[in-house]
From TrEMBL:
Chief site of localization: cytoplasm
Organism, as annotated: Dendronalium phyllosphericum CENA369
Protein name: Tetratricopeptide repeat protein
The keyword Cytoplasm appears for this protein: yes
The entry's keywords: Cytoplasm, Repeat, TPR repeat
């Protein structure tokens, strides 16, 4: 519904800016269309829009838009498992943001690079990227990015067996997500806290985290809902048998 309406508006805007030859507006609108198509799962269309936006932003020298578009293309490459290409796009984006002082895009790109490094087992590099992202997100007051980065740091702490530190990161993230209504990150954080509590044998506490996580995931129709439903059932079983 709403995404389709927004796409229709942007398509009208694009036609108009093409008609009057406003390349800046075209580049921005193509970027916005790419973002909406990516969010509605139309990946090929998203890439086509982003690539058109990228070509125009290069043509007119809009480096800020170029950096943002490179970052978003990188996120799509991650989604498709094209990791080397993603890293190259993020590195290009990062170089531009450092040059022009675009702290917002820089913070997001650092978080994305941290995620990729963590996934390829380069933990120290991942932590360095995450900590830089965290410092910048605090500096500019981007609480949503801060919550996501705290979450990512929490995962690394779990991986390294530093459980108390992990819990502290997740609790901070949870407080932010509740404050700003970011249900997706909140569900993820609750899942991790539930997972840790289950591992520690605190089954009732695990349920206190997992049940609200499940409710959110079912409400937003997430494909992860089934996995969490199975976890809830398993923990309920453990409580019955303990």
């Amino acid at each position: 519904g709403k995404i389709e309406e927004a796409i229709a508006l942007y398509e009208q805007s694009l036609a108009l800016s093409q008609q009057i030859g406003n390349v800046q507006a075209q580049a921005q609108t193509l970027h916005n269309l790419g973002f909406l198509k990516a969010n509605s799962g139309k990946i090929e269309q998203a890439i086509a829009f982003y690539e058109q936006s990228l070509a125009l932003s290069q043509q007119i020298g809009d480096v800020q838009l170029k950096a943002r578009t490179l970052n978003n293309l990188g996120e799509i490459k991650v989604y498709r498992g094209e990791i080397e290409e993603a890293i190259a796009l993020f590195q290009q984006s990062l170089a531009i943001t450092e040059k022009i002082g675009d702290v917002q895009t820089k913070a997001t790109t650092l978080n994305n690079l941290g995620f990729l490094k963590a996934n390829s087992g380069k933990i120290e590099q991942a932590i360095a990227f995450y900590e830089q992202s965290l410092a910048l997100s605090q500096q500019i007051g981007d609480v949503q990015l801060k919550a996501r980065t705290l979450n990512n740091l929490g995962e690394i702490k779990v991986y390294r067996g530093e459980i108390e530190e992990a819990i502290a990161f997740y609790q901070k993230s949870l407080a932010i997500t509740e404050q700003i209504g970011d249900v997706q990150t909140k569900a993820m954080t609750l899942w991790w806290l539930g997972h840790i509590a289950e591992q520690q044998g605190n089954y009732n506490q695990a349920l206190d985290y997992l049940q609200p996580a499940l409710e959110i995931l079912q409400r937003i129709q997430s494909p992860d809902a089934e996995k969490v439903r199975q976890m809830v059932a398993r923990v309920q079983n453990l409580i019955r048998n303990s």
